[in-house]
Amino acid sequence: MRKIILDVDTGSDDAVAVMAALLAKDLKVEAICSTWGNLDIDHTTENTLRLIEAMGKGDEVPVYRGCAAPMAKFLCKDRLPLAIRPLMKDGKEVHMHEPELKLEKATIKEQDLPAPLFYIDYLLHAEEPVTLVEVGPLTSLGHALRIRPEIVKNIEEIVIMGGGDRVANCTPCAEFNIWADPEAAEIVATCGAKVTWVPLDATHAAYLTKKDCERFRAIGTFEANFAADLIEGRILAHTLGQPLAEPDAAAVHDPLCICYLIDPTVLKDVQPVEIHLGFYGVGEGETIVDRREGLITPNSYFAFDADRFKFCDILCDLFTY
Ligand code: BDR
Ligand code: CA
After folding, report:
1. Active site residue 204
2. Is the CATH number 1.10.10.1590 carried by domain 2-319?
């Protein structure tokens, strides 16, 4: 059984990732760390707690609250603000991530230890290596690695949803999780662990459609129906703001990392590359993917593509129990 720690900014697609991870029989979720990102840290923490409680797993998985802001960028007044154009439908604003998941308020509580200290404590004392699945800004892990870089010895692999080579979303050249904290991303990318990137190139190739949501609904479990609700919301937001290869489709980024752990062949065209991140100017948050043979020292595996049919099949299997 592979042990994982999830780091999430829940978030619509994060919620699908949390459900997938908690249902995967071959994965043991040791803990979930929340981080700021899609929403502020209060909302991402509460959403995470209410989701695991709704799944009946509130006693099984501890939740650690992560950082409320990036390591450095908000201190630098000349860094680019994020230009957000509101998405409108019939006079109403449409959000990729509603502030609150439509579930009962959580009665379970987060742990006292903050996420960066949890990483340090867990990884210093782990008896076997653990895989970290990072699907939000990398702030908490960045801090932990800065304080105790030797924790890397107990990291089996870091799977990052983030970055993009030919695809960007929040600026012309940046993906959101990396744009949100490029310094933390650089620390993680260069920490010496095995790092696998699941970037926008892969997640946009693995889009899900309304038809896929119908498949989920036919399964009928709480997780299948809730995933369909969340993905249909994302389809509307994508249609208005980021149309994909097919109409009525959405990228559902974060659970692709979980599906990769279940079946690595869901990612395609995975190549060893050297990754660094852009910090300033128009290149802020850019994933600089260097694949110049003979000139680079690879620090990462980068998925340039993914199999959308396999992705949907794996999710269906997970939601069927
Ligand atoms: C990433 O940013 C967030 O909005 C999503 O949850 C995903 O992790 C995609 O750019
Ligand atoms: Ca996320």
Report:
1. no
2. no
